[in-house]
């Protein structure tokens, strides 16, 4: 036999042959039969490949040689001695395949060998420990993220708390918001106001318009009118009778004097027109929105003592803002209340006619019609500013006289009133009021 066969080792001749299988990768079944005769020895090896298996099946053969003398042939031929090899095979099957070996004239006993077809116990334990560690790490990370989120939320709530408390402190905050109604904060829908500088610029422009009106339509020539007549006309306009500032006689004297006439006329016109758009002035010549003007004329004054005056002022400011909101044609825009020229024309004409009872004595001859028409236009332009102030969140007030002014000390008169804020945009009172525009004075 050759050493290149599948069985690489065997015992010497004359003894039991034991074949040791070599590792195989093609899965074969090998059957060996040995026949011994006096003249020759024949060994037959049969190898049967297994096509459907990728695992090696090893067959171990145990040969038992028995010799028997054949009976003498009748023809006197010498008898042969035959040796039969009894082979016992032990097969190691592949768990993933089924192999059946059929060996003629032999018996087979198949005993499966123990193989490690799955992971070892140590590997399984390692995987279990790794999974447990990974789960523990994930749980710790989730707990850390949840803790940090709750901590951030608590810090945010604490940081907002002072703001909420601060907004509740001023009593006027309730007045401004009017309280939540059906889940709606009404203060968020009320009208917004123009910037301070825009209001001041408009006031200055109107003062210049009045100045131009006086320069164009009133003469500096001597006039035939008495101080008494002018004083009565001034009192009818509400001037000189308050006990503050200039008296009616002092104003009349300034207007009669040709050197100071234009200054006096500017004082009279600006005082009457701006008082008609001032929310704090109870004037019979109001150019505020008609319904509001009528209501202001009908309500009694404030009661003094305790907080009655403060309560009255707060209630009046709340009513002003609500009235402006309800009178607005396009409330959702939250813009200032617009004055329609046709709507306010009757009120402007009433103001101009009342002024002309005094001014007619100073009109340049031949310009009476133009003067009356232009004066009404001036009144309408001033009324537009009045609508802006009436619908503004801030409580505005005109300054017509400087405090402490006495008739004997007058060396100048105010030709354009100043403006001051009595509250902020949230309705909180400002004490004392903050001056935004100082009154414009002219020296006599």
TrEMBL record:
Composition bias, kind Low complexity: at what positions?
Answer: 28-71
Annotated segments matching region Disordered: 28-109
InterPro entries registered for this protein in UniProt: Immunoregulatory_rcpt-like (IPR051694)
Q: Where in the cell is it found?
A: Membrane
Provide the alphabetized UniProt keywords. Answer: Membrane, Transmembrane, Transmembrane helix
Membrane-spanning segments: 125-147
Superkingdom of origin organism: Eukaryota
The UniProt entry's GO CC annotations, sorted and at most eight, read: cell periphery; membrane
- Residue ranges under compositional bias (Polar residues)? 79-109
Q: How does it sit in the membrane?
A: Single-pass membrane protein
Q: Which residues form a coiled coil?
A: none
- The region annotated as signal peptide is none
Stated name of the protein: Uncharacterized protein
Specify the species: Trichoderma gamsii
């Amino acid at each position: 036999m050759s050493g290149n066969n599948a069985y690489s080792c065997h015992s010497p001749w004359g003894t039991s042959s034991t074949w040791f299988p070599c590792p195989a990768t093609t899965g074969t079944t090998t059957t060996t039969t040995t026949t011994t005769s006096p003249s020759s020895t024949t060994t037959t090896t049969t190898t049967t490949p297994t096509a459907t298996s990728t695992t090696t099946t090893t067959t171990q053969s145990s040969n038992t040689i028995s010799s028997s003398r054949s009976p003498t042939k009748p023809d006197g031929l010498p008898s042969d001695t035959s040796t039969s090899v009894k082979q016992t095979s032990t097969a190691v099957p592949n768990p993933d395949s089924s192999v059946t070996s059929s060996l003629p004239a032999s018996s087979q006993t198949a005993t499966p060998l123990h193989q490690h077809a799955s992971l070892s116990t140590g590997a399984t334990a390692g995987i279990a420990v790794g999974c447990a560690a990974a789960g523990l790490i994930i749980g710790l990370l989730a707990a850390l993220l949840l803790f940090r989120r709750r901590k951030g939320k608590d810090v945010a709530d604490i940081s907002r708390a002072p703001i909420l408390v601060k907004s509740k402190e001023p009593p006027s905050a309730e007045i401004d918001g009017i309280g939540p109604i059906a889940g709606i904060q009404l203060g968020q829908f009320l009208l917004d106001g123009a910037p301070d500088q825009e209001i001041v610029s408009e006031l200055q422009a109107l003062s210049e318009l009045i100045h131009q009106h006086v320069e164009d339509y009133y003469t500096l020539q001597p006039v035939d009118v008495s101080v008494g007549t002018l004083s009565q006309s001034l009192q009818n306009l509400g001037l000189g009778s308050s006990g503050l500032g200039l008296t009616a006689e002092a104003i009349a004297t300034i207007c009669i004097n040709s050197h100071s006439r234009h200054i006096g006329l500017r004082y009279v016109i600006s005082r009457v027109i701006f008082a008609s758009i001032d929310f704090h002035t109870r004037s019979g010549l109001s150019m505020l929105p008609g319904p509001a003007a009528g209501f202001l004329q009908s309500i009694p004054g404030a009661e003094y003592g305790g907080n009655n005056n403060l309560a009255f002022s707060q209630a009046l400011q709340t009513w002003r803002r609500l009235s402006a909101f309800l009178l607005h044609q396009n409330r959702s825009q939250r813009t200032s209340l617009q004055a329609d020229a046709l709507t306010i024309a009757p009120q402007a004409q009433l103001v101009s006619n009342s002024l002309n009872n005094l001014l007619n004595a100073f009109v340049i001859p031949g310009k009476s019609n133009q003067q009356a028409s232009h004066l009404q236009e001036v009144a309408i332009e001033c009324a537009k500013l009045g609508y802006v102030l009436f619908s503004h969140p801030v409580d505005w007030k005109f300054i017509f006289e400087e405090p402490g002014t006495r008739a004997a000390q007058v060396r100048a008169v105010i030709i354009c009133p100043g403006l001051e804020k009595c509250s902020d945009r949230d309705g909180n009172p400002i004490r004392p009021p903050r001056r935004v525009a100082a009154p414009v004075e002219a020296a006599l």
